[in-house]
Write a structure and sequence with these properties.
Layout: E1 17-23, H1 27-37, H2 51-63, E2 74-83, H3 84-91, E3 98-101, H4 125-160, H5 169-187, E4 196-204, H6 205-213, H7 221-239, H8 241-244, H9 255-258, H10 266-278, E5 283-288, H11 292-304, H12 313-321, E6 349-357, H13 358-364, E7 372-373, H14 391-394, H15 397-419, H16 424-427, E8 436-444, H17 445-455, H18 462-478, H19 489-493
Antiparallel strand pairs: 1-2, 2-4, 3-4, 5-6, 6-8, 7-8
Helix pairs in contact: 1-2, 4-5, 4-15, 6-7, 11-12
Length: 523
């Protein structure tokens, strides 16, 4: 049992800090002008819009669902003091945004800074003290593991880079920096999902409307309403009518809660059933387009105006995927959706069941064109610890012992809050980054290729790398014709162009292209 004894460290918290960094000056009039332009012989400017047009066209477009006119205006926000749980569960749970977020992989978090809910009838001062003590304890584990794992990371990196007594000092410094980053990358698994993050976040006007409307649709409805409410308030300061004219208010009753009875033990059964379906894999192929090769070949011929006798199926696939014949495969700009022939890859689709940690999935979900069905943790909670252990921890018995204790303490603290009557919404903020997330994810081959190219690189996050390798192996089983030219950038570029590695000074130190996919990753 977690005793809740304060470890002598202050947890820094506070309300979300939201700033509007950039915005359209007249978003509502711009939307009405765009709507008028659809039916005008010329381009209509925002300065021409009248009150009557604001009233009539605004209502006609918004309430009939013609929302593209409200997508032109964009708003760039600065977000501080928001939890990673909120970002994962709500802010990044849809594809229509752009974020640059502070990285826990590369930024050492020396101070315990986290979301602490305001006190209420069911979250009194004593519960708050207990909550903060659990967060402070997690930070202590983070520091302990950060220090303990550096030596292991250093030893592996020294071997990879052939470091010896005569190695240059700058080379040694680079290894030391890399070892520290590897250590904090793994140590972050013990941090609570309540941990604060900072980001630049840009959305369109219609997405702001939708976020406000759906602010209860996550594990963090209170935090979501506070953050999105601040965003709405900032936009109202520059153009109140963009939001006030339609009276959009948050939905209160959602089907997710109405049709599911809360059961504190429901998560265990779901977890067992899901894990059995994985059959030991990180990611398992559960559905796919059986005629993918044929359909993509037909699509290629439709684009190029060729007959089957002029271009057989396998020839079409080679023209699409072989980087020596298709320069689009060498582009780092990811121009696939703009390239006529590459759109043929949109017609093959694959669905995977996968299990990765909360922290890994927070990165995985950034592949917005490969969407996933992720759990509401408040409905899939488990009483027993349920977490992922990275390989660097598995190789160090002392570190593994500390890690397992940290996991036990996190679940114990969460369970004790629940038993005290604290809501799951609040209690689950104490779950660690290591918490297992079980999800289904689907994508077309076009977008999966981009993801696999990025995530089979040795610099990719360990779990996402392993999931991607699992997915490629299974693709190889069902559609072997497609996998020859799929892999990390170095695998695709070797022998065709330079540089072979696109990571520059962040080259992993291993010539992966010489033996992909058979080469083993050590760190």
């Amino acid at each position: 049992m977690f005793d809740g004894a304060p470890p002598g460290e202050l947890v820094e918290s506070g309300p979300p800090r939201i700033t509007l960094r950039n915005a359209f000056a007249h978003p509502f009039d711009s939307a009405i002008a765009a709507a008028r332009t659809c039916y005008a012989p010329r381009l209509i400017s925002p300065e021409e819009i009248t009150d009557k047009q604001r009233l009539n066209i605004g209502a006609a477009t918004f309430y009939s669902g013609h929302h593209t006119v409200y997508q032109h205006a964009h708003f760039e926000f600065g977000l501080e003091n928001v939890s990673r749980q909120f970002v994962w569960s709500f802010l990044h749970a849809h594809p229509f945004y752009n974020s640059e977020q502070q990285s826990q992989r590369y930024v050492r978090l020396d101070r315990a800074q986290a979301y602490v809910p305001p006190t209420s009838l069911f979250f009194d001062e004593k519960s708050k003290e207990f909550y903060e003590a659990a967060i402070a304890r997690a930070w202590n584990y983070y520091r302990e593991l950060s220090s303990l794992l550096i030596a292991d990371a250093r030893a592996i990196l020294n071997d990879i880079w052939h470091i010896g007594p005569m190695s240059h000092a700058k080379r040694l410094q680079k290894i030391e920096r890399s070892a520290e980053k590897r250590a904090i990358e793994i140590a972050r698994y013990v941090l609570p999902v309540a941990a604060f993050t900072t980001m630049v976040h840009t959305i369109s006007g219609i997405v702001l409307h939708r976020l406000w409307r759906m602010s209860a649709a996550s594990d963090t409805p209170s935090e979501a309403r506070a953050v999105i409410g601040e965003m709405v308030a900032h936009v109202k300061e520059i153009d109140a009518q963009f939001l006030d004219r339609f009276g959009t208010e948050p939905l209160e009753e959602l089907p997710e809660w109405k049709n599911t009875q809360l059961n504190v033990n429901a998560g265990e059964g779901f977890a067992r059933e899901f894990d059995a379906k994985l059959k030991g894999k990180t990611s398992r192929l559960v559905d796919y387009s059986p005629n993918a090769v044929r359909v993509m070949a037909e699509s290629y011929r439709a684009v190029t105006g060729l007959t089957e006798s002029q271009c057989k199926d396998l020839e079409a696939i080679d023209r699409l995927l072989n980087p020596a014949r298709n320069l689009y495969r060498l582009e780092t700009l990811n121009v696939g959706v703009h390239a006529p022939i590459m759109r043929a890859l949109q017609h093959a689709n694959y669905t995977f069941a996968k299990k990765i940690s909360h922290t890994a999935d927070s990165q995985d979900q950034r592949h917005r064109m490969v969407p996933g069905s992720r759990p509401l943790l408040t409905l899939a909670d488990t009483r027993e610890p349920d977490y992922i252990t990275p390989m660097l921890l598995k190789a160090n018995l002392r570190a593994k012992e500390i890690y397992d204790r940290a996991m036990h303490d996190a679940w114990s603290a969460k369970n004790q809050l629940l038993d005290r009557g604290v809501s799951p919404e609040i209690s689950l903020y104490l779950l660690p980054n290591a918490k297992s997330i079980r999800l289904y994810e689907s994508g077309s081959l076009l977008h999966l290729i981009h993801k696999w190219t990025m995530r089979t690189c040795f610099n990719a996050q360990e779990e996402i790398y392993q999931a991607s390798m699992d997915e490629l192996a299974q693709l190889r089983e069902v559609h072997p014709e497609l996998t020859r030219y799929i892999g990390p950038p170095c695998h695709i570029r070797a022998g065709i162009t330079t540089p072979i590695c696109t990571e520059g000074s962040h080259f992993c130190g291993i010539k992966v292209w010489l033996d992909f996919p058979n080469i083993s990753r050590r760190i």
